[in-house]
Amino acid sequence: MRPVFLITAFCLLTAATAPAIDFISTNRYELAKEQSVDTEQWISAEVIQIDGTLRQDLFAGGIKDLVLNGICEQAVWAMAGNSMVITGDCHDNVRLLGTTIRIDGTIDGNLMAVANAISIGTNAVIAGDVHLNANQIILEGSVGGSVDLTATQTATLSGIITGNAKVHAHEIILSDNAAKIGGNLTYMSSRELIPGENVIGGTIKRSEPPSPYSADRLYSHAIWFLAAFLTGMPFVSLFPMTTAMASILTRKSPLLCLLVGFVAFFLLPILGVIALSSGIGIPLGALMLASWGALVYISRIITGLLIGTLILRNGTTSAGRIILSMSAGLAVIYSVTFIPTAFSLLFQLVVIWIGTGALLLALHQKRRLIIQVPEELRQLEALKNKTPNTMEESP
Fold it and tell me: Which of 165, 188, 206 is at the close of a domain?
């Protein structure tokens, strides 16, 4: 049997066994308690409320609120612009992104959540590991696995954690009456923790904030510099016209590049997330977010080339000279941003904005040239065809 028939048969069998997918975009989505859905759900709505049963994965994007009171037998991926409440039962992993998240239900898998405020209520039972990142975190429920919490302000622990706990917060509140950690506690905070008896089953260790002058940070910065340099060499070689136009724009119109880059830096991810929130716009949103990430990364290469050119003023425009200028500029960028200060953060943002704006403007000018060149070629061809006729008519 030919391989093409085997491949075709395999694709047909795979397509036959793959679960169906429903793409839903509406103002308000509701699934009643007595209802159940057997297909994978991709939902985009202002308000989402699920009281029934979902047999397959859920991908939900709520512009305002999302309430999950029912049963989800497979994985849950959810995002809400305002609040998110889970009081039902989730039999697989749950990943959440929102402003305010509260969980009072049961999760048989792992939980990962990012929000401004996250609350794990007293009725919550999470069988797996928990990874939370927020400004304020309150954990009052029960966790069967390990916990990894990162809070910029306050992390409050008054629940039961079977495994290890890793907490990084400005202030950590550990309830002696209700909190119970079966494993080890590793924490990083502005104040030292002194837990009561029988609160920590294992050991307790306080981690010091990493020094900005540490050897690990120096090694990490060197790796990032090398990665940018290795990325810049093929980019400059494969896209010489775009690189040259962007480099010229950074020298002639730096303020314009800065303005365009500033707007694109914030606008592109917002438009990408909005597109992802609708089922039909998922490919477009993914493309916009990927393009934004590529522009942000390559922008350092363009700005590095500008800085290196200003440092090495004299010389030819050979490929070796361009690579040398780029490496010198990247060395300056990664040297300035080595120590985390307000100035280094602002410098890094300016580098990204100028490079991003220059790339976008260069791509726009390149598109105009691509459209303009064929028209000019047609005019030259017409002039060439007209010239012999004119010569024949002249006495």
Answer: 206
Residue 261, domain member (yes or no): yes
Residues of 56-70 as b/e, b for ≥16 C-beta within 10 angstroms? bbbbbbbbebbbbbb
Q: Which domain holds residue 319?
A: 215-380
SS3 170: strand
- Specify the amino acid at residue 156: T
User: Are 220 and 162 part of one and the same domain?
Assistant: no
Of 206, 225, 246, which residue sits at a domain end?
206
The tens place of each residue's pLDDT in the chain, 395 residues long, gives: 444 444 334 343 333 444 588 888 888 899 999 999 999 898 888 889 999 999 999 988 766 889 999 999 999 998 887 889 999 999 999 999 888 999 999 999 999 999 999 999 999 999 999 999 999 999 999 999 999 999 989 999 999 999 999 999 989 998 878 889 999 999 998 788 888 888 898 899 988 766 667 777 788 889 999 999 999 989 988 888 888 889 889 988 999 999 999 999 988 888 887 777 665 667 787 888 888 999 999 999 999 999 998 888 755 567 778 888 899 999 999 988 887 788 888 999 999 999 999 999 998 888 777 665 555 556 556 666 665 554 455 44
Output the six-digit token pair for 307.
Answer: 């800085």
Q: What is the CA radius of gyration of the chain?
A: 29
CB 91 within 8 Å of CB 72? yes
- Tell me, yes or no, whether 113 and 237 share the same domain: no
Burial of 202 (0-12, 13-18, 19+ CB in 10 A): middle
Do 221 and 200 lie in one domain? The reply is no
